[in-house]
Write a structure and sequence with these properties.
11 helices; 4-stranded antiparallel sheet; binds adenosine-5'-triphosphate; 301 residues
Length: 301
């Protein structure tokens, strides 16, 4: 069931069309990614979903509610991560959790939440004294303290070290596993590839692709590449004629064959049939990074 429905969403800032006719559905219980270059319109889109911005056109429904007209209802079902600047530097973790819990009719048990997010021993620590990772975990806790069915996380892991980023990924998976739908805005393709069930790739205010991460990767020209040094000279035409192969080239003394998963088996079978072996064999898969670079046009001017 679609818990978020966005239809023909448009939003301009003066002459600038930040969002230009976006439509997508987010299914209940999934992690849905919003990806795209700087200035693509990602934050504007999620701000319209959160009810923080009034769209110029199109419609948004969150659990059936209009985020602008039914602001209170949407606030109860949707938890948004706070920007760092929205918290007082002197507030303690405990005070922040208590304060935000008091704003909701059916808040979560904030002590249990602090425990779950690894903040139990930081309750008396002031916000300004928390590390980047701890601040991020607090912002997730505050987004969850109202017991929402949906949580919006915008650029959550920017600025975190690789370990803190991985811990945050585990938390996001736990949140999804507890039944919460996650709308995740990210610049990190590895993050999107690991976490998202589906993702929309936005460029210049429009959706240019919407699919599972592997579906998006499948759209790139790269696919699977197999490279090797043959044990004896080999006519590349034989490789190019294999059914799944898209290109063959010589690179630094190696033969590089692009194709699909099946190409690996086809190339090795051909070599075996010719009595040749493949030295320094390497197989590389295209990633969401490759798909992103293939499909988007670069930063907004
Ligand atoms: N309040 C505003 N006033 C004027 N222009 C704005 C405003 N907010 C955003 N924009 C412009 O609208 C476009 C989309 O911005 P938005 O913040 O939605 O993009 P984004 O994809 O979230 O970018 P980033 O990845 O850099 O955060 C950009 O060109 C941006 O400069």
């Amino acid at each position: 069931m679609a818990i978020i429905e966005v239809r023909g969403l448009r939003k301009a800032y003066g002459e600038k069309r930040a969002v230009d006719g976006l439509s997508f559905d987010v299914q209940e219980g999934e992690i849905f990614g919003i990806l795209g270059p700087n200035g693509a319109g990602k934050t504007t889109t999620v701000e319209c979903v959160e009810g923080l911005r009034r769209p110029d056109g199109g419609s948004v429904r969150v659990a059936g509610y209009d985020p602008v007209a039914d602001r209170d209802a949407v606030t109860r079902v949707l938890g948004a991560q706070l920007q760092e600047s929205e918290l007082q530097p002197k507030i303690t973790v405990r005070e922040a959790l208590e304060l935000y819990a008091a704003c909701y009719p059916n808040p979560a048990d904030w002590r249990a939440l602090a425990e779950r997010l690894g903040l139990a021993d930081k309750l008396r620590t002031r916000f300004a004294k928390l590390s980047g990772g701890q601040k991020q975990r607090l912002s997730i806790a505050l987004a969850l303290v109202g017991n929402p069915g949906i949580v919006v996380l915008d650029e959550l892991t920017t600025g975190l070290d690789p370990r803190a980023r991985r811990e945050t990924w585990r938390l996001i998976q736990d949140i999804r596993d507890s039944g919460v739908t996650v709308l995740l805005v990210t610049h990190f393709m590895e993050e999107a590839q690991r976490l998202c069930d589906r993702a929309a790739l936005i460029d210049k205010g429009r959706i240019i692709a919407l699919d599972t991460p592997s579906g998006l990767i499948g759209r790139t020209a790269g696919g699977t590449a197999i490279s090797f040094v043959p044990s004896a000279p080999l006519e590349t035409r034989l490789l190019a004629d294999l059914p799944s192969v898209t290109s063959v080239r010589h690179e630094d003394g190696r033969i590089v064959v692009n194709g699909t998963d099946e190409t690996v088996h086809a190339v090795l079978s051909l070599l075996a049939g010719l009595g040749l072996s493949a030295h320094q064999l390497r197989v590389t898969e295209a990633t969401l990074d490759d798909a992103y670079l293939d499909l988007t046009t670069g930063p907004d001017a």
